[in-house]
Specification:
This protein is mainly β. The chain has a single domain, classed as outer membrane lipoprotein receptor (LolB), chain A (Clam). It is 11% helix and 42% strand. A twelve-stranded mixed sheet has the order 7-8-9-10-11-1-2-3-4-5-6-12. A hairpin with a 2-residue loop joins strand 10 and strand 11.
Length: 231
């Protein structure tokens, strides 16, 4: 996967006055709704929409493939991935876990963003065309163009495009053989609370390595692992 730092978890992203306050980058509270257009093969039960809840510099949503909750603190550059295996009767696996991933300067340096003057209206907001050059896992460079809104939402994206100034409003997301185009279609102001961005109680933190061991135990108990081609 080319952009997100959490590819491992995918194996198993008002009134007039209030409107003036909320419609500022870093000060927005609300929901950005996306439509998902799948290109080619579509997995059974694949989602066709995604809701990104925003509270100032924090966001939360359900990952497209795993449907696990993701909580992001853009200001602290931290991504939390939550896993609930409490209903699995298997020692070493049963429980509620979360993995905390820190986006560092090295992650951000992998991407180069050229902000152009070209704009278009998406979901009622002005979005700017940004040309992206990023390094894939094999070290090769790839290019793409996306549309970004810097009028609302966190000051920086750290999940799909680490270091991007603004919120991706139209972009392509690729994972193995799947390709999805996400487009913002509606913005609902309000209806999001800071409590929505807090880690729920009962979850225990594990490292990425520890979580991989949990998945290994689960795969072995189910009769084998899942290859990338099976996803």
């Amino acid at each position: 996967m080319k952009k997100t730092i959490l590819s491992f978890c995918l194996v198993l992203t008002i009134g007039l006055f209030a409107s003036q306050v909320f419609a500022q980058q870093g000060k927005f509270k609300g929901i950005i709704k996306y439509t998902l257009k799948w290109d080619g093969e579509v997995p059974q039960g694949a989602p066709t929409t995604l809701d990104l809840k925003v509270y100032d510099q924090k966001t939360t949503f359900f990952d497209i493939f795993s449907q696990i909750p993701i909580i992001i603190n853009s200001e602290a550059k931290i991504v939390y991935s939550l896993f609930d295996f409490s209903m699995i009767p298997l020692e070493g696996v049963t429980g509620k876990w979360y993995v905390r991933s820190k986006v560092d300067d090295e992650d951000i340096a992998k991407n180069n963003y050229e902000y152009t003057s070209e704009t278009k209206v998406i979901a009622g907001k002005n979005a700017k065309k940004v040309n992206v050059t990023f390094k894939s896992e094999d070290g090769t460079e790839k290019k793409e163009s996306i549309w970004v809104c810097d009028e609302i939402g966190p000051n920086m994206d750290i999940y799909y495009y680490p270091g991007l100034k603004g919120v991706p409003f139209e972009f392509t997301y690729e994972f193995f053989k799947y390709k999805i185009t996400l487009t913002a279609t509606e913005i609902i102001e309000g209806k999001v609370k800071e409590a929505d961005m807090i880690l729920p109680t009962g979850f225990e933190e594990v490292t990425e390595e520890e979580f991989k061991e949990i998945i290994k135990i689960l795969n072995e108990a189910s009769g084998g692992g899942q290859s990338e081609d099976d996803i």
